[in-house]
TrEMBL record:
This is ATP-binding cassette domain-containing protein. Keywords: ATP-binding, Cell membrane, Membrane, Nucleotide-binding, Translocase, Transport. GO terms for molecular function: ATP binding; ATP hydrolysis activity; ATPase-coupled transmembrane transporter activity. It comes from Candidatus Syntropharchaeum butanivorans. The keyword Membrane applies. It comes from the Archaea. One of its GO terms (cellular component) is ATP-binding cassette (ABC) transporter complex.
């Protein structure tokens, strides 16, 4: 796979001397879905801004698309870079400031020097892709949270970048909008986009990540979602939880449920339950045994920091 981002010993320090990031080393390859997972204040947004060349690191080296990102290269090749990387901010209101949704989607294209005819074609294409043609003439102020998020992603996607950066994409969304957004992100990845997501939403990670970096100003862990959520010590250090479905099946095991590998998502839970029912003669058997109370106590102690 082609290496797109290579960060070596990257640190960032605010003007007041407070450190936001320390000695970050990460590598991201074309076509991956990578989640930067960490609690509030871990430096996730700052890291995305560095990946997007919005802020330079205080020290260390950032290489993107075989180019060292420094002040000189960014100034020289900024338009080329902006065509390759798109950033969807956590607050869509930051990105939606034109009189209509259609104008917002066209804004970035017009500033990249694209012809009016092609701008129109691209705007219509992403409006149709996200199913937001009906709101194209609305003022962004009058949209729901889910509609705003779709409009913001559409504005970024209209530029057709190779890489999409998402900052807390599932934050403040109702369940339906959240599910739709996860589906959109995965569809974009299936179509070839490299996806990098910063989040603390542990329940979304299994549906959105091939690999996970755990960030708490430093990279303190890296692996698949299953590897990360199986490491209780790491999660405690990062002040993070496991997905709720993972906890539920851990409790079921205390009551005798036979589960070789705890599911991380609803889809995995359905597969596991279906397999169990089929092998147990159409039933699921739960019971209290001599170790149940001790196992429940151990379970509670494991996650007591939450």
């Amino acid at each position: 796979m082609q290496l797109l981002f290579d960060l070596n010993e990257v640190s960032y320090e605010y003007p007041n001397g407070m450190k936001a990031l320390e000695d970050i080393n990460i590598r991201i390859y074309r076509g991956e879905r990578v989640v930067i997972l960490g609690p509030n204040g871990a430096g996730k947004t700052t890291l995305l801004k560095i990946l997007d060349a919005l802020v330079p690191p205080s020290s260390g080296r950032v290489k993107a698309f075989d180019m060292i990102l420094d002040e000189r290269s960014v100034k020289r090749d900024i338009y080329s870079f902006r065509r390759k990387v798109g950033f969807v901010f956590q607050d869509p209101d930051v990105m939606l400031f034109s009189p209509t949704v259609r104008d917002d989607i066209a804004f970035g294209l017009l500033h990249l020097g694209i012809s009016d005819e092609e701008v129109k074609e691209r705007v219509e294409r992403v409006l149709d892709l996200f199913g937001i043609d009906k709101i194209k003439d609305k003022h962004p102020y009058n949209l729901s949270g889910g509609e705003k998020r779709k409009a913001a992603i559409a504005a970024v996607l209209s530029i057709d970048p190779d890489v999409l950066l998402f900052d807390e994409p599932t934050a403040d969304l109702d369940p339906k909008s959240r599910s739709e957004l996860i589906g959109i992100i995965n569809q974009l990845n299936a179509e070839g986009k490299t996806i990098i997501i910063a989040t603390h939403d542990v329940n979304a990670v299994p549906d959105l990540a091939d690999r996970v970096y755990v960030l708490n100003k430093r990279i303190i862990g890296e692996g698949t979602p299953r590897e990360i959520f199986s490491d209780v010590t790491l999660l405690k250090e990062a002040n993070l939880e496991v997905p709720e479905i993972f906890k539920l099946f851990e409790v079921l095991k205390c009551f005798g449920y036979n589960c070789e590998e705890l599911p991380l998502s609803i889809d995995e839970a359905i597969e596991d339950l279906t397999r169990t029912v089929e092998t147990e003669g159409g039933h699921i058997h739960l019971h209290i045994h001599e170790h149940t109370h001790d196992e429940i106590k151990e379970f509670r102690n494991k996650y007591e920091h939450h």
